[in-house]
Amino acid sequence: KKGGKTKAAAQKQSAPKAAPAKPVKPLQAAKPITKTVASKKKSLFEEDQDEVKSVRDVVNLDHFKQIVTDDIDDDDDDDDEVGDEVDLDEEDARAKKNMFSDDEESDEELLPIERDAIQLREEEVKIAEESKAELKDAFKQQKSESGFHFPTTEELEHEKTFPREPSYIHGRLQQVSHILSNFSSLRDPAFSRKDYLALFYADCSFYYSLSPFIILEFATMFPPEELLLFLQASVTSRPITIRTNTLKTRPSQLSAALSSKGITLSPLTPWSKDGLVIHDSPHPIGATLEILSGHYILQSASSLLPVLALDPQPNERILDVCASPGGKTTHIAALMRNTGQLFANDVNPMRIKALVANIHRLGIKNTVVINTDGRFIEKTMTGFDRILVDAPCTGSGVMSREENWQKDDKDIKRCTKMQKELLRAAVDCTKNGGVIVYSTCSVLVDENEEVVDWILKQRHVKIVDAGIGFGREGWIKIGRKRFSQALKKCVRVFPHSHNMDGFFVCKLIKTGVGAREVKEEDSPQEQDDGEQDNAEQEEGGEEEQEQEDGEQNNAEQEEGDQMEEDGVEEQQEAEEVAEEDGEVENNEEPELNNAKTKPAGKSKKIHAGMKRKRAQGAPTKSTKKRK
Predict the structure, then answer these.
(1) Which of 6, 132, 501, 518 has its CA 20 to 30 A from that of 491?
(2) Reported pTM
(3) Using one digit for the tens of pLDDT, what is the confidence trace for 465-503?
């Protein structure tokens, strides 16, 4: 109460004394705008006065006033249509007065158009701030890319002693890869492309724990950006896949049985009908009742490709040269429907145990297990319709299976030599017109294209389409190496492009028996890459040839000496015959004639031997006397 009266009565009494409202000047609108926006933002967001001032600085008064004026004009047009005779100036003045009043008004007292205008302006301010932040981030990123600091020699030497964090090396790999992709515009003129590549390969070797030799081998196959994707995918585990044993169940039945146990899976369609991909499993996928019953086997998706390329048929005679642990062997038997003859060979007796166990568990009945060296198997077994050579390799396509995968040049050469011998023996075991499939779980060219190109020159075979339907073509030109155009029909699978283990598959058809005549001319890659080796081989070959020629000359010399001794004896016999010639009577003429004929026959042999020695360049008795 105020003086015995209520506050409302006091305001009512003082109302007539209030001064009439004056029109608001446009230039005085800045101060009320700040208060209006501040009151609204304070009531809604509880923000500080400094933040309100920052919003005020961004606000464009003329633009804001224009938006409000346009909305009011639209509202006035609507009122005129319904017949409301309100003066436009008075309505505009009232709206401005209500909106830009010095008194702080609540949200309930604002008109809907005023609230919409304020909300619209706040949204515009928010969008402007977000755009400014995005532009700032883009500018920082562009500045960091263009201003990449190439480490000095001292810094690189310091990194050898005190290595940087892997996250830093990974970030530098990304930056250098991006610069190499647009080298002309992002490069530092002080450094060449070789300098950037050397830094890039060194960081790859450190970050992925691989030898520089292997990194350079991969670098010949992929550009820098794709090389990063390949290395990252190679050290990442692939999805778990299983193959349905069609001799005991169907893929739909197996899928339903596993799904009932909470296992999430999907089919490997469209290229495989029997494969299933396991996405999630609450139980170990290798310890279920179905796997113990032989309804499926754990097998990678890439391992299905060689058998699909082999395309085994029932009642055929097939050989698996390197069979353990039995995934491909049991797959071949299932496609043969347990008919025909399947020979599963492996050179390691310890691995035979796993092979026999899988054959029994999956119910295979047409397979014979043998333990012999596949490089010499053609000496004991021949006449096969189809042969699978899944040769031992370095495993560069399945690096994720090993914790610390490391290989060098010696390992590659040893595997390449064994692969060539296995493939040659398989071709010799196959009957004319038979099929040979060569496959490895490696991505290196030395173990794949080079081996196939070698067998094309050694045996009568040709490459045909594998019939898989996806994958990359084989290389016919990589670095300084050149291969046959037919190698385009080979199939390559990579982890980063197909989400499968790296694999190589080639399908061959035998077109003739025996070895192919090898030309003495060297191929281009041998001339470029192995001039020193060829010179050593030629030098060694000359020494061997000289040794063989010396042995042959010694043998011929001994033969000539023996012939000369025989000639002396024959000459003595001829003289004795001449002495007895006068004493022989007429009744002994037949014996005399026989005696004369015998030395004459031997003399012809002597003259023939001398002529042969002269033709071969061997020393004769007359030439020895001249010397």
Answers:
(1) 518
(2) 0.62
(3) 999 988 999 999 988 899 999 999 999 999 999 999 999
